[in-house]
Amino acid sequence: MTISGDGLIHEAINGVMHRPDKDQFMETIAFGFIPAGTANGLHKSVMEYSGEEHGIHNAAFTCAKGRKTNMDLTEITLEYNPDKKVYMFLAMSWAVVADVDLNSEAIRWAGEARFYIWGVYRGIN
């Protein structure tokens, strides 16, 4: 279980997927997560799918109940490093969404508003 945003969950999943025994290991574990990031996209998606409202308390209760659901991962082979695989759990969208998410780190002090501020900034430029 993690108490984090999507980044730590991404790292945990990628760590497991690079294990030589990943198939057997994945049969024995389940990932649980309590949202503590800015956007918490995975948490919101899973809670919506489960018919639960998103939030810290509902996430903790869902983990404690042991509710499980399967989800697909996307495997990406990097163009300039074909030996490296990266696994992702959220959908790929327009490049601007990724740009806003990643590059708005420069104004993290703005909290969740950073996404709107950076989106407008990139739209103007």
Write the layout of secondary structure elements.
Elements: E1 2-4, H1 6-17, H2 22-28, E2 33-35, H3 41-50, H4 56-65, E3 74-78, E4 81-88, H5 95-103, H6 113-124
Helix pairs in contact: 5-6
Determine the N-to-C terminus distance.
Answer: 40 Å
The number of helical segments is: 6
Strand order of the largest sheet: 1-2
Question: DSSP strand (E) fraction?
Answer: 15-25%
Radius of gyration: 16 Å
Provide the structure class: alpha+beta
Low-confidence stretches: none
Global morphology:
flat
**Mean residue pLDDT:** 86
How many β-strand stretches?
4
Helix content: 40-55%
Order of helices and strands: EHHEHHEEHH
For the sheet with most strands, the description reads: 2 strands, parallel
The number of distinct structural domains comes to 2
Explain this structure.
There is one protein chain. Helices cover 48% and strands 15% of the residues. The chain is an alpha+beta fold and 125 residues long. The chain folds into 2 domains: 2-90, no CATH class; 93-125, no CATH class. Strands 1-2 form a two-stranded parallel ribbon. Strand 3 and strand 4 (81-88) form a beta hairpin. Helix 5 crosses helix 6. The radius of gyration is 16 Å and the shape is flat. The mean pLDDT is 86.
